[in-house]
Amino acid sequence: MKFFKAFCSTLLLTFLSIFTSNAQQLENSTLWKISGNGLESPSYLFGTIHITCDATLESDVKKALDETSQIVLELDMDEGDLQSKMLQSVYMKDGQTLKDLVSEEDYKAIDAMLQKHMGVSVTMMQTMKPFFLTAALYPKLMDCPMMSFEEELMKVAKAQGEEIKGLETVEDQLYIFDEIPYEEQAKDLVRSAKDDLAYDKSMFAKMMKVYKEENITAMVDMMNDENYGSVSKYQDKLLDDRNKNWIPKIGEYAKEKPTFFGVGAGHLAGKNGVINLLRKAGYTVEAVE
């Protein structure tokens, strides 16, 4: 069950590293400096991608880490009972199963996909929320060993003797997948099964390319892809509401001490993106290029 800690903790990314279509044009950068509005020293905001082939921290990111005194991620990934809390939240409520959500034909297609790529029958996982079944397949979209920027940032925190803190709890994050109808999540899983992940692989490759270019504005329209209905129809729950909740917390951490914030790159841009919301709150947010 290793995949849970690797990307359930920041699960909203592969498809959530991508944002809304009404984003303003922003510089090509995944690293931003936060200053002003009463801050004695600047903090930094870094857009991560939770699963990738190369999680090497660039020199500008390392410099920002050296200039800050604490690291804040979406979740406190150093929390001792994090994995157990995740496991308690992956199952559907009210005794629902995948068979309640899809036709017999689609159920068999999902079973064939899981058997092929994971060596597990869907009967062993049919009480899990469909989004988590999709997440279990994320490593199969890659042609390389899976890496995580969050894991690299945790290594830095440990080396520098800094505590990892979080902007939200795992309960906050995973509650979203009860808010998004299970039927909508199941539709995305069925689509993946019918073409044996072909479309998902092409989208993942596209996202990796755009992220490498640090062109956060170019990632905008990907979030509106109707092939991912559980994402495109519920951006308010997946991104907007969470971003708004984070702004006062970011302010508190940054005023406490210079802070390095690492959140999914999908949260940076857009009208309700963290960059724009911080600016509206009175902070100066500048790209580090």
UniProtKB/TrEMBL annotation:
UniProt-listed InterPro entries: TraB/PrgY/GumN_fam (IPR002816), YbaP-like (IPR047111)
Keywords: Signal
KW Signal (keyword) present: yes
Signal peptide feature range: 1-23
Domain of life: Bacteria
PANTHER family: CYTOPLASMIC PROTEIN, CYTOPLASMIC PROTEIN-RELATED
Protein's name according to its UniProt entry: TraB family protein
Organism of derivation: Winogradskyella jejuensis
